[in-house]
Amino acid sequence: xxxxxxxxxxxxxxxxxxxxxxxxxxxRERLAPRVEAxxxxxxxxxxxxxxxxxxxPGSEIYVRNKIRQSDALGIATDLRRLPATAPFRDALAIxxxxxxxxxxxxxxxxxPLPPGMGADAEARIFDAISPAKDVDGFSPVSAGRLxxxxxGLVPCTPAGVMALLDHAxxxxxxxxxxxxxxxxxxxxxxxxLLLHRHATVTICHSRTADLPRVAAAADILVAAIGRPxxxxxxxxxxxxxxxxxxxxxxxxxxxxxxxxxxxxxxLAAFERRGRVLAGDVHPDAAEVAGAITPVPxxxxxxxxxQLLSNTVRAAEERRRAGAG
Length: 324
Ligand code: NDP
What we know:
11 strands; disordered N terminus
């Protein structure tokens, strides 16, 4: 079950490992007949328009994975690239073209946009995406719908976490959930989804006082911080479910040894590749937690699976509404 898991939390296995690879596969399998049915009726596949601006190496990898997985499922992609020097209006023109195109069902603008486009470029581009095609769920209309618990396209990473909790049979209603991180793309929508499922939710951030004590009250603890191994065992209530959203690349041997230990599989992987991924949760948390997600192989694969799911849903809903 944990074949894709390369040490880390899994190596300290006291906790049950929540496998995102396996669930992502199941989600894709469930989507396949819907993709086929849509294509049969519409005479074209569900289609995702992607904008990749600049030359961020991480973004290249994310976009490549999104295209590869879309292809494998029969979802068509239309990738537009812009150089890092392109002005904001070029990005806006592409989004407007996607908005107007009948045969484009979903629009994804890969973050980050190049700094030259301006500090508010991302907010302005998300403002421009048609809500019906907003498969990332980042537009103000999508965010507002989520606050009001109305149906809409929900940000992929938190939606993936909910799918994982449900698949694992983790009870949410009436439980105490703590979300560390308050970004618009992970922390806030995560907290809202848990709230709508009747958890009692606390949102923490960099100014939270006595973070370990607050976190240790959680039955469900979500770490979406971007700081490797910040969440140690003293943050975790015995038996709690720990969801590690963080994806941090470690390139210093010393740091790998300090977090994972000298004999760890992570260190062996580091010796081979010169870099490894680490979550926001320290591996010693797995000795206390009841269930925990690995990094990689936990939340990450579900994010793309949910993107595919949102694209199929957007295609179906646009068709029902008489578009596309
Ligand atoms: P952001 O940088 O936008 O937000 C990080 C949040 O963590 C902020 O709210 C910040 O607080 C808080 N924070 C930072 N330092 C601390 C600290 N020392 N103590 C408590 N809180 C702190 O990140 P994102 O939400 O975009 O991403 C979070 C992580 O999740 C990253 O590692 C990212 O790579 C990963 N990620 C993974 C995805 C996946 O598919 N698995 C998808 C998206 C993101 P404040 O607001 O006060 O600054």
